[in-house]
Amino acid sequence: MLHLFARTQKQKKLVHNLSCRGVSHIDFGSLKMSGGPGLESLVDQTISVITNDGRNIVGVLKGFDQATNIILDESHERVYSTKEGVQQLVLGLYIIRGDNISVVGELDEDLDAHLDLSKLRAHPLKPVIH
Amino acid sequence: MLPLSLLKSAQGHPMLVELKNGETYNGHLVNCDTWMNIHLREVICTSKDGDRFWRMPECYIRGNTIKYLRVPDEVIDKVQEETKSRSDRKPPGVGRGRGRGREDGPGGRQPKGIGRGLDDGGAKGMGGGRGRGGSGGKAGGSRGAGRGRG
After folding, report:
1. CB distance from B48 to chain A under 8 Å?
2. Is B70 in contact with B16 (CB distance < 8 Å)?
3. Residue A30 scores a pLDDT above 70
4. Sm domain spans which residues (chain A) (predicted)?
5. Do B68 and A70 touch (CB under 8 A)?
6. What is the tens place of the pLDDT at every residue in B54-109?
7. Options 2.30.30.100, 3.40.50.150, 3.30.470.20, 3.40.50.300; which CATH number does B12-87 get?
8. How far apart are CA A75 and CA A49, in angstroms?
């Protein structure tokens, strides 16, 4: 019974609306968190962040908030260039303001371990233009 | 762990702040607030290109101009200790007990009324502060940088 999961009047209305369209399951537990960036599942995992200025920062996600400000531990920046391999700069513990974040992605550590960064050539990313 | 709690725990520690305009500020964190506005002491400001430097005894940076903060690694251990000790200190049910005591007494209404008044005052103060803090912070920041250049 779908409506059992709905607690508030708003949720019940939504359930009615969606069940008319053939939707059979809604997880209100996760809908409730829709105010935040939904990064819970990535905490304590290695993530890769692309910032608005085109940097790529890799580190362990330690925390985040509603504004997508994030804490990155043991972080390093990967600097891409077409002339030489990828340079890794050690950054350490970082708080990145959400305003400056474009993309947060889970890093596949197995795949990453098999990359030979010294042979990898790529254009650096351009900054985001607002 | 919240980014702003980590920042709060970094009080007294040296840190590097990069602004959206590319300038960086190295200094010791004096204080910060929930908007990430920060107050630094013993500051060295570096231009975007890293070729010019200014020293200033203190500066105040409006939170929304910040790109990122680099904090010492050990701060993350400190914040974990602090949150642990806070949860140890506060046994559950303390708040509820206090609430009942107020309601029971014959003078229960009186303190309740006072409490409400205080709350309203606080809320008002915060609202006003937001506006003031905004313009003040911005003006302070740019003024500080200008002085350094001159």
Report:
1. no
2. yes
3. no
4. 34-110
5. no
6. 999 999 999 999 999 999 999 999 987 887 787 777 666 555 555 555 555 555 44
7. 2.30.30.100
8. 10
Domain ranges of chain B: 12-87
Residues of B in contact with A65 (CB under 8 A): 2-4
Whether B72 contacts chain A with CB within 8 A: yes
B21 → chain A, closest CA residue: A53
CA separation for the pair B65, A97 (Å, rounded) = 9
Residue type at B110? Q
Q: Is the pLDDT of residue A65 over 60?
A: yes
Does domain A39-125 match CATH 3.40.50.10420? no
Contact between A92 and A59 under an 8 Å Cβ cutoff? The reply is no
Partner-chain contact A62 B76, CB within 8 Å: yes
Q: Would you give the DSSP letter of residue B95?
A: H
Strands, E assignment, A65-120: 70-79, 87-96, 101-106
Angstroms from B36 CA to nearest CA on chain A = 9
For the segment A101-130, what is each residue's pLDDT rounded down to a tens digit? 999 999 999 999 999 999 999 999 999 988
